[in-house]
Amino acid sequence: xFFQILGAVILGFGIWILADKTSFIAVLQMSSPSLKTGAYxxxxxxxxTMLMGFLGCLGAVNEIRCLLGLYFTCLMVILxxxxxxxxxxxxxxxxxxxxxxxxxxxxxxxxxxANDDKRNLQDTWDYVQRQIACCGWTGAKDWEDxxxxxxxxxxxxxCSCSNSSKDLEVDSGFCNxxxxxxxxxxxxxxxxxxxxxxxxxxxxxxxxxxxILGVCTGVAVIELLxxxxxxxxxxxxxxxxxxxVPKS
Length: 248
Fold this sequence. Notes:
Layout: H1 2-19, H2 24-31, H3 33-62, H4 65-91, H5 93-109, H6 119-132, H7 147-151, E1 156-158, E2 174-176, H8 197-236
Antiparallel strand pairs: 1-2
Helix pairs in contact: 1-3, 2-3, 2-6, 3-4, 4-8
């Protein structure tokens, strides 16, 4: 039963990644095909886990050794896959960070409120900046590469970055500086958050690292217990000795 619930959770998480349009995950999902592939993998693993839980229950109730063996094998494959995925993420974290920087940098550079084709992606990034209270990926300076702001001599700034109370009702697009000192300005003149979104995301991960590791460890321990119980039950199931059946 647990693995059926776990499978439903994994399946739902994969579907959420594909359907989500209002968080940082959506920015990655729209910009990187690798995340979409990961979401489909999660959906497949979730469906397999639900099927595996059903087979395990069926094998235990009816004492079917082949189903219990299949249950054990699937658990082992999933556990090995989880460990491998964790190692890949750990050893490739710098590469992943570079990929994220490239994705977000391109988004900021080409951000255009008048571009309806990228409206969903841009609205999502605005949402991220408002929720995390950040600006740009490494900082507000990233927005100096935006073509529209360059043409406006930096006398405008992204509204979703604003730390000013007057911009609270404006959640997207660009806002005008009230009193620019000159006809040109820099990001230092903008009333925006100083923290970059990369630091905000990293801080969130650090704050929730204990919970994430706890959940992953708990799932791994339960999977190990399931493997031990299934193989023990499989060994205790004795095949019928048909040699003792009277011949007709």
